[in-house]
Amino acid sequence: MLRSGLRWLRPDGDWCEAGDLFAYCNLGLTRRPGTEGPLPFEGETEDFQVAFAAPVAGRLRRAAAASTGGMLDRLGFSMLWTEDFVLGALEEPQGPSDGTVGLMFAVGRRALDLADDRSGFLTGWHDRTRAWWGDGVPPSVLGLGVCDQRGLLFGDGVPFEPMFKAVPAGLHLVSTPDQPLVHCARVTLEQKRRTPEQMTAIAEDAARTFPAGDGPAPSPQDWMFLGALLGSLGQAPTETRAPLLTRAGLALSAPPAVVAMSLASEPRFVLRHRRLGYCLRVHEYRVAVLGPGTVRWLQREFEPVLLEPDDIRRDFVALYDALNEDRRTDMVILNSYATQGFEDIATYAVCDPPLHRTVDSLWRRALDVMLLELARERDIDIIDADALACEHGGRDHAPDGVHFSGAMTCLARGQMLDLLRARGAAGFAPAAA
Question: What is the number of other CB atoms lying within 10 angstroms of the CB of residue 138?
Answer without folding.
Answer: 22
